[in-house]
Amino acid sequence: MTFLAIKNISKRYGPVLALDNIDLTVAAGSRTAVVGPSGSGKTTLLRIIAGFDIPDAGQVMLEGETLADGPAVVPAHRRGIGIVSQDGALFPHLSVADNIGFGMERGQADRAKEINALIDMVELDRGMLDRRPHQLSGGQQQRVALARALGRKPGLMLLDEPFSALDTGLRENMRKAVARVLRNAGITTILVTHDQAEALSFADQVAVLRGGKLVQAGTPQTLYLNPCDRETATFLGDAILLPAELGDGFADCALGRIPTDANGRRGRAEIMLRPEQLRFSMINGTASDTICAGNVIDVEFGGAICTVTLTLAKAAGTAPLSIKSSSVGLPDVGSTVHVSVVGKAHVFDTAGR
């Protein structure tokens, strides 16, 4: 069921076209992540949904109600949309309890009960209710900001890079906690982030913006494994791009003959593999008869996930390949390994190449 519909949204700031004819739908109860490089238009899109900016053209519809139709808009305070920003935007002179209850009526009979329920919902101790924001950690401040937004009982929650100011470990824990809270509350959510891994792990749907255009939208798995073009492929993660000759469902390339998702296409094309699709095994003796032999030129230890970089012995001129590996059984620099591929290579759509 479509909960939010964005139709043909365009926005220009002087000579700059920030958004160009954007179409996107969001299902009820789902989590959508909007990603893209700086200047791609993702924050502008979020602000138009929130009602802070007015589109030049297009529609925004929430549960069938038109919130924007070109310059004719419903004001932000009447949209029933919650928003949590990067810095949380808490009031420094108010206690945690008063921050959470800011949008509630002062004389509301069950106000204290609701505040207690909200701080429980975001998994904070009630003993923090009397503290001021400066007495909280960054992660705790973001949870208070989320509780305040939830207190307005929004139909839609907008998260504007809420984890970017947090340390890496805390950011991951906060992302999981916020996702759990919103899922349990059944609230439809849109996250704007510059962190591709965050988008892929948080969302049910990922939308990629580039140059003000919606390049591709779909499940995280679809975008990661089947990106529409090489720019999207490399933006969403490390990618191995190789020229190949297609035929009979296979690609002949520097790694040998490997299966593809080419759907009957033939001829020259560029294929994509993710580094984790490559495997290596040690070669005993000479590698002269091994089609996919690689010479290890670097080993980067990264704990659980390490990176082995190698050059292909029989593909002079091919860029070095990086393989993700566990830290168990790492080869030595200078050794020769056999390289194999797991799964299918992705072939970009002709229109996206």
Automatic annotation (TrEMBL):
SMART domains attached to this UniProt entry: AAA (SM00382)
Keywords: ATP-binding, Cell membrane, Ion transport, Iron, Iron transport, Membrane, Nucleotide-binding, Transport
Pfam families in UniProt: ABC_tran (PF00005), FbpC-like_RD (PF22443)
Single GO molecular function: ATP hydrolysis activity
UniProt domain ABC transporter: residue ranges: 4-236
Entry keyword annotation includes ATP-binding: yes
Biological process, per Gene Ontology: quaternary ammonium group transport
InterPro entries for the chain: AAA+_ATPase (IPR003593), ABC_SmlMolc_Importer (IPR050093), ABC_transporter-like_ATP-bd (IPR003439), ABC_transporter-like_CS (IPR017871), ABC_transpr_FbpC (IPR015853), FbpC_RD (IPR055223), Mo/tungstate-bd_C_term_dom (IPR008995), P-loop_NTPase (IPR027417)
GO cellular component: ATP-binding cassette (ABC) transporter complex
Family of this protein: Belongs to the ABC transporter superfamily.
Protein name in the entry: ABC transporter ATP-binding protein
Lineage, broadest ranks: Bacteria, Pseudomonadati, Pseudomonadota, Alphaproteobacteria, Hyphomicrobiales
